Amino acid sequence: MRNRLSRALPVAVAVLAAVAALPACAATAAVPEPVPHTAPAADHATYIVTVRENSDPTEVADRVGATPLHIYRTVLHGFAARLSPEQVAALRAMPDVESVEEDGPASGDNAPGHDEHWGWEPGGR
C-alpha cells in the first residue's frame, strides 16, 4: 500500500504542475470583453426597452453599454435607461428587442383609439 502511494504522489504532483503552468489567458480566451458602462449623460433621453421573454433585460443592456435605471419583469419584460442615439440604433437592430420607445407621460385618456373604444364623439353627448 505504501509503495502505491509513493508512486502516485509524484504523478499527482506532475499533473498539478502541468495544470498550473497553463497560461491564465487560455482559460478566458473564449469569453468576450464586456462593453464598459458609462454614466448616463443627463442630455440623453430615457427609453423603455422591451425584450423577448426568453432574453435577459440586464444582458441586453450590457451588450450596448447601457446602465439600466430600472429592470421590468412583471408587466413589461425589459428595462429603462438613458440612451445615446447610437445605443438606440443598436438596440433596435437586435432580434431579441421588441421595442425601444422614448419615455414620456402617459394616461388612460390619450391612448390611440380611445375615442372609438368608448363611443365618445367630439361635440357629442
Describe the overall structure.
- It is a single chain.
- With 125 residues, this protein is α+β, with helices and mostly antiparallel strands.
- The protein is 36% helix and 16% strand.
- It has 5 helices and 4 strands; from the N terminus they run ααβαββαβα.
- Strands 2-3-1-4 form a 4-stranded antiparallel β-sheet, with helices on one face.
- β2 (70-72) and β3 form a beta hairpin.
- The longest helix has 20 residues, at 2-21.
- The chain is globular and about 80 Å long.
- The model is unreliable at 25-36 and 116-121 (pLDDT under 50).
Architecture blueprint of SSEs:
Layout: H1 2-21, H2 24-28, E1 46-51, H3 57-63, E2 70-72, E3 78-82, H4 85-92, E4 97-102, H5 114-118
Antiparallel strand pairs: 1-3, 1-4, 2-3
Order of helices and strands: HHEHEEHEH
Q: Given the structure, what is the number of helices?
A: 5
Major beta sheet, strand line-up: 2-3-1-4
Q: What is the approximate shape?
A: globular
Largest beta-sheet details: 4 strands, antiparallel
Q: Note the gap between the termini.
A: 100 Å
Class by helix and strand content? alpha+beta
Strand content: 15-25%
- Kindly provide the radius of gyration, computed on alpha-carbon positions and rounded to a whole number of angstroms: 27 Å
Percent helix, as a range, is: 25-40%
Poorly predicted runs:
25-36, 116-121
